[in-house]
Structure prediction request, 350 residues.
Amino acid sequence: MPAGQKPYLYREIFAQPQVLTALLQEEQDHIAAIARSLRAGRIRYIVIAARGSSDNAALYGKYLFAATVGLPVALATPSLYTLYQRPPRLEDALVIGISQSGQSTDIIAVVEEAARQGVPTVAITNDARSPLAQVAGHTISLHAGEERSIAATKTYTAQLMALILLACHMAEDEERLAVLPQVPAAIGRCLDMDDSIAQVAERYRYMTTCVVIGRGYNYATAYEFALKLKELTYVMAEPYSSADFQHGPIAVITDGFPVFVFAPRGIVQEEIRRLSRRLRDRKAELVVFSDADDMLRLARVPVPIPAPLPEWLTPFTAIVLGQLFVYHLTLDKGYDPDHPRRLTKVTRTR
Prediction:
């Protein structure tokens, strides 16, 4: 990398407003046409196949499609299609495969089997000529440009937006569609917090383990933030739903144990607030990402979310702040943010 040039990871984090703007402009009509085609058929449930960060986007999609379209959503178990050779019957399903590269062997296998069974399939990928795109009946391109850093950032948020566009068009939800142009500017306001996030991250340069809490739409955020911590800083970060965490794992909390909480305003916030009070009483090191003052007051380290959005869109702003935190912590620990050890950009599993 030339002297003075920022790492690819940093530049790709900052490219997200432009990427999402391009996706909204370039794919809106195409996705609307896909949705019309899907509505014309019989769909009773949705199956989403993905790995890594794409799987975290799929977890968001599980909440989104159920709440928006009213259909149950299952995350695929690819080994049933590959290793066990026992694919389930997919009658009346819509099968969605998500892969940044479009080269994930097991995700391709799920979509191929769905096509063989004659059900509608959609690929969400950053490469419209990829093997995944070739086997799917419909393809949604992320328009993110090449992602040079191994850790996904701009393709993750583009996947969230692609899922939202598909769900909203399937539901013919014009009210939700009208809000989407607010997202790039909201992310821009989060990026303006870069310097303050860098100061927060420096405090945790010796951290080796932590817990990450979210719920509802931001359950996926907890998983994606934890994955980024593991990929880039080698911190053993464990993500939990705020409900599941109280069924046993809360026992690990001791004085000063780091707990990262994603709690934007919304339906689940009160439940997370109650848990945060319990954690504060146990003297956990609470780092709270929120746009609510009362939540931030519970934190040892508050991280304000500067651009309020409807709850179902807060995973954009929450994860961008998380990406900045992980980027700066990676540098503080002396690691290369573009080349985490023993990882490659494309991972092929069966």
